[in-house]
Every structure is written in structure tokens, then in C-alpha cells.
Specification:
The chain is built from two helices and nine strands, in the order ααβββββββββ. Strands 1-2-7-6-9 form a five-stranded mixed sheet, with no helix packed on it. Strands 5-4-3-8 form a four-stranded antiparallel sheet, with no helix packed on it.
Length: 139
């Protein structure tokens, strides 16, 4: 029988790494920050639902082996006469960092926003990826 050394700090790292993936916590943050990441041909593709957000308020960056998607949903000025029965649509800023499984060609990353869905296409690259690039989001 072999013994496995227990590393307590590894458990803390795993807990914090998985923290943002809990659905209950995402809804408290005000946005559904779920991201689908998949491989399509020679590309990594990330898709995120961002309904009701102006494309000018979406920020996409690739740094090292991470994809960062951030933005904000503007506060709507409402009439004081309204009586709300429920207010569940959140306003404000959001940010999501996604670890990429492979290195990508940072200079060739493209982002497109249509019908409330942000789609980021990242050509895979052989070898290590380093540095940072800001991606222009097309509508």
C-alpha cells in the first residue's frame, strides 16, 4: 500500500479556483458568467451569453494562457412612479478569467458579438504563449 502526501494548501487553491464556477455565487454577483470553451479545427473558441450589453462596454484580452472578458451593463434611469414586484436584472460591472488549455496566437484572436452572444475565436499555437493583447470586439 502506497501513501499519498496530503497538501492542505492544494485544497485551498482548488477551492478558490473553482469559486467562480458555482451557480449560486454567480447569480449573487448579478451575471451568469458561464463560458463554453471548445476546440473547432485549429481554433479554441469561447462563447458567453451577454444579453443587453452594448458592444462598446465589452473588453476582451488574452494574456499568457488566460482569456479575460469584462464589461458593464449600464444602469437604466427609471421613473419614480414605478412599483416593482421583482428586480432581478443586475446592472454594473463583471469580469471573468478563463484558463486556456493550449497556447494561442494572440495577434490573430477575433471576437464577435451578435444576438447577445460573445464569440471569441483563438487560433491554437505550438509552444508557449506569453504577453498580452487587447482584442477588438466586432458587432
Amino acid at each position: 500500500m502506497s501513501l499519498i502526501k496530503w497538501e492542505p494548501f492544494d485544497e485551498f487553491d482548488r477551492l478558490f479556483r473553482d469559486f467562480s464556477s458555482l451557480p449560486a455565487l454567480r447569480s449573487q454577483q448579478g451575471f451568469d458568467l458561464a463560458v463554453d470553451v471548445y476546440e473547432d479545427g485549429g481554433n479554441l473558441v469561447a462563447e458567453m451569453n451577454l444579453p443587453g450589453i452594448d458592444v462598446e462596454h465589452i473588453d476582451v484580452e488574452v494574456e499568457d494562457n488566460y482569456l479575460r472578458i469584462a464589461g458593464r451593463r449600464e444602469e437604466v434611469q427609471e421613473k419614480k412612479e414605478k412599483s416593482h414586484y421583482a428586480r432581478e436584472i443586475r446592472r454594473g460591472s463583471f469580469e471573468r478569467m478563463v484558463a486556456l488549455p493550449d497556447a494561442v496566437e494572440r495577434e490573430k484572436v477575433e471576437a464577435e458579438y451578435a444576438d447577445g452572444v460573445l464569440k471569441v475565436t483563438m487560433p491554437k499555437r505550438a509552444g508557449e504563449s506569453g504577453g498580452k493583447v487587447k482584442v477588438q470586439v466586432k458587432k
